[in-house]
Structure formats: C-alpha cells, structure tokens
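Progress note, sequence design subtask.
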C-alpha cells in the first residue's frame, strides 16, 4: 500500500483518481476517492487475510500439531527460528492491516464488502502460495511427514482456491451493489 501512496503523490498533477490527495478525499466524492477507498479496503483486507491465515498455519500446524516447521531442511533449532520469524511476519502483516483499517474508518472510507472479499482472497492467496510454491516447488516443508500427503495437499489447495473465489465474488458483488446505489454509475 505504501507503493500506491507514493504513486498517488507522484501523479498529483495528472487527472484521474491517482491524482487525488487521500488525506482530503471524500468517500463518495467526484474525484474518484470512492474507487481509491475501495482499493485500499481490498488491500487492507488482503493483508489481514494473509496475516491471519499465516497465524493459523503457524499456531495449528507448527506449534500445536508439530507437523512441520517453516523450514524443515536443517536442524530442529533452525526450524524453530524460522517458525519464530514466520510468526513475527504474520503478526506484522496483521498489525499493518489493522492500521490501514483504522485509517479507512477514520476517513469514513471503509468498504466492508471489499474488505471481507480482500480478506478471503488474501488468505487464500497466501495458502495457495504456501501449498504450491513452498510445499511443492521449493520443498522447504510439507504439510505432514510419514503419511500420504496427497489428500492433505488437495484439501489445502482446494480450500485456498475456494477462499480466493469467494473473495473475488464478494469484491465484485460489493462493486455491483455500490453501482446500483449510485444509479448504475460505476466509479
């Protein structure tokens, strides 16, 4: 989101919603603020979903069930350190998302449907990345060891895809609902 804010500031002289100053934008204004707030709502939700799913993964599969560490190609000590770093990452992502959410609420710009859609899509994207990139391509860990992992892999990736699809549907339905409230005009 910092990248988006930087791009907004660099393009203020241009026309369009990238040119607006978010600090003075009105959520339903004609300067495109509504689209920017919707985009920021999606981004905040996606970051929260990523952090939340990473937190659940770390807590359930790493700490409670002891199925794997974040990095299993070394000693147990290295695995525990990697778990700690992963856990810190998940909390920083969640905390950053809450700051973004707070800012949206303060500016009266939160689009709740887009936030929830972003949360599901972000969480699903993290889980799909974990299941395909980390488990299969990089092979830094598996969901579980000494068992047939195929059912676990299928369940992990199907749930991730379902979360992404549900998130996209929520984001789209929120956009359609807003367009209907605005008399069919999309912003």
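Output:
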């Amino acid at each position: 989101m910092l990248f988006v804010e930087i791009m907004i500031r660099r393009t203020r002289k241009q026309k369009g919603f990238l040119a607006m100053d978010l600090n003075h934008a009105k959520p339903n204004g004609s300067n495109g603020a509504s689209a920017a707030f919707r985009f920021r709502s999606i981004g905040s939700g996606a970051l929260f979903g990523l952090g939340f799913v990473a937190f659940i993964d770390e807590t359930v599969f790493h700490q409670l069930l002891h199925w794997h560490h974040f990095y299993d190609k070394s000693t147990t000590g290295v695995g525990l350190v990697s778990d700690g770093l992963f856990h810190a990452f998940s909390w920083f992502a969640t905390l950053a998302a809450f700051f973004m959410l707070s800012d949206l609420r303060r500016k009266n710009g939160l689009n709740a449907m887009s936030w929830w859609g972003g949360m599901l899509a972000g969480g699903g994207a993290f889980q799909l990345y974990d299941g395909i990139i980390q488990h299969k391509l990089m092979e830094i860990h598996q969901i579980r060891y000494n068992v047939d992992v195929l059912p676990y892999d299928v369940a992990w990736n199907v749930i991730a895809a379902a979360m992404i699809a549900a998130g996209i549907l929520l984001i789209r339905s929120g956009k359609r609902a807003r367009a209907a409230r605005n008399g069919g005009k999309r912003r």
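The mean pLDDT is 80. Work on this subtask will continue into the next period as scheduled.
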